[in-house]
Amino acid sequence: MFYISSGFGNGMFTLREHSLIHTNYGIKEDDRYIKNLARDYEKAVIKARQFVDSIGEYAVLDEGKAWDLEKWGEAEKPNRWEAPVLLPKEIAKIEADKKAKEKAKAEAQAERLEEERLKQEAYDKAEPVPVTDKRIKFTGVIEKTYFTHNQWGGSTKMFFVDDRGFRLNGTAIKETFLDDEGDEVTQYVDNGVKVSFIAKVVPSDDDSKFGFIKRPNNVEVM
Question: 136-221 sits in which CATH class?
Answer without folding.
Answer: mainly beta
